[in-house]
Amino acid sequence: MKTTELYYESAYITEFDATVLSCEAGGDGSFLVVLDRTAFFPEEGGQTCDRGVLTDDHGGTHRVLHVSIRDGIVSHRVGEAISEGTQVHGEIDFGHRFSNMQQHTAEHIFSGIVHSRFGYENVGFHLSDSEVTMDYSGQLTDEQITEAELAVNRAIWADIEVRCTFPSREELAAMDYRSKKELTGAIRIVEIPGYDTCACCAPHVERTGEIGLLKVIRAQNYKGGTRVSILCGERAFVYLSEEHGIVDGLARGFSTSPARVCASVERLQAQLEERKGRVADLQSRLLCYELQEIDADLRSVFLVKEADLDQNTIRKTVNGLAAAHPGFCGIFAGDAKTGYHYIIASGTEGGDAKNLQRILSEEFGAKGGGSSQMIQGSFACGDIRLVTERCGAF
Ligand SMILES: [Zn+2]
């Protein structure tokens, strides 16, 4: 016997009385309870199931862990067995359900608008407790998404009645409606006049005004089409409140208005780039003075510099030193805490720098490589003097 689905009588039924028709082990220590009637909407069509509790006639409460449907029979997964024939009182978590109704009804309006204005089909829908995504068969531009978003919100504010019906076969034949798959059996049509007509089995709000607000969070290319993420009702409100808090905090940090935060960040980035250039220039000038002090008769030269020394400056300096000294010349940039990176070149006598790489790898755990003329790499080291002494003696 098929379960009487009370959510088709009304999406607003939150409590009901029912009789346990069967109770079977669910495989993982849980039990699957079938009732003669239920207001618990199962996981179906990309939407998570209802939550809530079943209270038996001895006052025992059973949290409903999951709800599924098969061949018209709805199963409620609970932690303990409830014997056949027991009278139960069911209560669904209506906060959770109402949020699902809001997200789901808004999806219909959005998909109806995308279909009528841009000609794309809704080919996927996912409604979890944290995310709502809709997939469309074509690529929507940012402008089209913004247009659809505003149009959905206007439909919400117009507070239109949402009609759910089971039309006859003849009525259906004369009807133009969206459907993701070929349907059999009784077909439920959800109509939002002026916006959408779609075959759907899920609970929806009675009037669009109950959705409150729709906000598009993200859009991305997906399987040749577009995946649009939305939030509606309280979920949208909470999301926007959090974002407002972040922007407000940034604005206070920059001593500016929220509208000017982006400009302030851009200015800060430009300043940082300019400073980086200046620091590199100063480091390179300082290095020139240092190089003038180096004894020209030294066979090899190894310098230890700050971690932020510009890579081009290091390379240029190492090449300059290698052209003036016969052994090996290199720079180790870094510090004892974060480790060092290095560039070493072979001097005028043309020794094989790869031999030095082998010593650095074997004795100091360096990771790197290169040619016989030049090697580069990095390693962690507490005492860099040991390394420079070893390299200098090579
Ligand atoms: Zn629906």
Topology:
Elements: E1 4-5, H1 6-9, E2 15-25, E3 31-35, E4 37-38, E5 52-56, E6 61-64, E7 66-70, E8 73-78, E9 87-92, H2 94-118, E10 122-127, E11 132-136, H3 142-157, E12 163-165, H4 169-173, E13 189-192, E14 196-199, E15 214-222, E16 225-232, H5 233-253, H6 261-292, E17 301-305, H7 311-322, E18 328-335, E19 339-346, H8 353-364, E20 367-370, E21 374-379, H9 384-393
Parallel strand pairs: 1-4, 17-18
Antiparallel strand pairs: 2-3, 2-9, 3-8, 5-6, 5-9, 7-8, 10-11, 11-16, 12-13, 13-14, 15-16, 18-19, 19-21, 20-21
Helix pairs in contact: 2-3
The structure holds zinc ion.
Q: If helices are DSSP runs of H or I spanning 4 or more residues, what is the number of helices?
A: 9
The neighbouring-strand order within the major sheet is: 6-5-9-2-3-8-7
Quick one: CATH class of the largest domain?
A: Alpha Beta
The CATH architecture of the largest domain is: 2-Layer Sandwich
Low-confidence stretches: none
Strand content: 25-35%
Largest beta-sheet characterization: 7 strands, antiparallel
- Total domains, how many? 4
Q: Could you name the CATH topology of the largest domain?
A: Threonyl-tRNA Synthetase, Chain A, domain 2
What is the CATH superfamily classification of the largest domain?
Answer: Threonyl-trna Synthetase, Chain A, domain 2
**Overall 3D geometry?**
elongated
Rg, rounded, reads 35 Å
Can you write the helix and strand succession as a string?
Answer: EHEEEEEEEEHEEHEHEEEEHHEHEEHEEH
Bound molecules: zinc ion
